[in-house]
């Protein structure tokens, strides 16, 4: 059975896969930064904040250069994209994830070890859309 994919749909699928790979790296950076900071005696709130900042900076770099790279003739102002990246990950990675964890664990009594995995089903596609259509939105080409 052959499922036809347009060139644009295939491009978006490839972007989503690349976005997922960057996300795996972000998760590792965030966790290892957190663990290292806690190990050296920093408060876990500080450790979490440092892990978040480093992982978002990593995400911005790779998403800007690799996932949502500008094509010939396209331009993107990097600083607004960076701010939008922090806002996107802050809203989904901190605010939405915390609210969802409360619902899964405290309301629906899902295991606190399973609940973050359920969150990924919601936050990964949402982060992809926010990054693609907002943080790394392409500017119109100059004619």
Automatic annotation (TrEMBL):
Domain GtrA/DPMS transmembrane: 18-136
Transmembrane stretches, start-end: 12-34, 40-61, 82-105, 117-136
Record-linked InterPro entries: GtrA_CellWall_Glycosyl, GtrA_DPMS_TM
Single biological process term from Gene Ontology: polysaccharide biosynthetic process
Cited Pfam families: GtrA_DPMS_TM
GO cellular component: plasma membrane
Keyword annotations: Membrane, Transmembrane, Transmembrane helix
Subcellular location, record wording: Membrane
Keyword match Membrane: yes
Membrane topology designation: Multi-pass membrane protein
Stated family: Belongs to the GtrA family.
Protein name: GtrA family protein
Biological source species: Wansuia hejianensis
């Amino acid at each position: 059975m052959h499922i036809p994919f347009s060139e644009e749909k295939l491009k978006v699928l490839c972007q989503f896969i690349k976005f997922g790979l960057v996300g795996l790296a972000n998760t590792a950076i965030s966790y290892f930064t957190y663990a290292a900071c806690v190990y050296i005696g920093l408060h876990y709130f500080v450790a979490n904040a440092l892990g978040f900042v480093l992982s978002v900076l990593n995400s911005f770099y790779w998403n800007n250069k690799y996932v949502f790279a500008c094509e010939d003739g396209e331009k993107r102002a990097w600083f607004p994209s960076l701010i939008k990246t922090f806002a996107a990950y802050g809203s989904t990675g901190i605010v939405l994830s915390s609210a969802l964890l409360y619902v899964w664990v405290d309301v629906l009594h899902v295991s606190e070890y399973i609940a973050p995995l359920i969150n990924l089903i919601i936050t990964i596609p949402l982060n992809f859309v926010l990054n693609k259509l907002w943080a790394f939105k392409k500017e119109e080409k100059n004619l």
